[in-house]
Amino acid sequence: MKKVLITGATGMVGKGVLLECLDHEAISEVLVINRSSVNIKHPKLKEILLSNFMDLEAIQDALTNLDACFFCMGVSVVGLNEEKYTQITYGITKKFVDVLHKLNPELVFNYVSGTGTDSSEKGRSMWARVKGKTENYVLNKGFRDAYAFRPGGIIPERGIKSKTGWYNAFYAITRPLFPLMKKSKNITTTTKIGLAMINSLLFPLENKHLENKDINQLADKP
């Protein structure tokens, strides 16, 4: 039975991961850290509200004995310069990585990145370089295991909605096509991302960069 930490559980991907963890028999406890409540009551669930994610030391007593961190927190690059985007994307993730590695070096750390991320950190796309830098820090920290999840097209399930308004409008228009879209190996769902996160604890992989087809394959493991 595993105890997991989830960040970004109020977002579309994080909410999907949370729901699957609450339902899965392999997960005994779920800790979520958010700025605002997920508004879910469940015997497995414990929630900590933290306004400043750089102040993790203030709650470090609650961060021990973890088996995994499913880091689903993220921010859109729209309207942000490289300095600000790096501060949020790389800086906050690095803080979680450093604190959790100190307290739980044997945990599995899964970082939600995105398709097109630049592992070389030298490409022309600013967001891809920053995401690549963040992935590299996570994967090289020295946890028992770590993965960079790089989802592309994601279909929300179980009533989940995106925080981005135009995403929801797009999903509303394309909803009749969802059954067909789900047959593509290049499309994943919030459910499959959640199951793949859980299965990464049970079925370790050599490949540490998981695109949609890899996520779907991992999710479907029995």
TrEMBL record:
Pfam families: Epimerase
Subcellular location: Membrane
Organism domain of life: Bacteria
Domain NAD-dependent epimerase/dehydratase: 4-111
Primary site of residence: membrane
Alphabetical list of InterPro entries matching this protein: Epimerase_deHydtase, NAD(P)-bd_dom_sf
Protein name as it appears in the record: NAD-dependent epimerase/dehydratase family protein
Taxonomic lineage of the native organism: Bacteria, Pseudomonadati, Bacteroidota, Flavobacteriia, Flavobacteriales
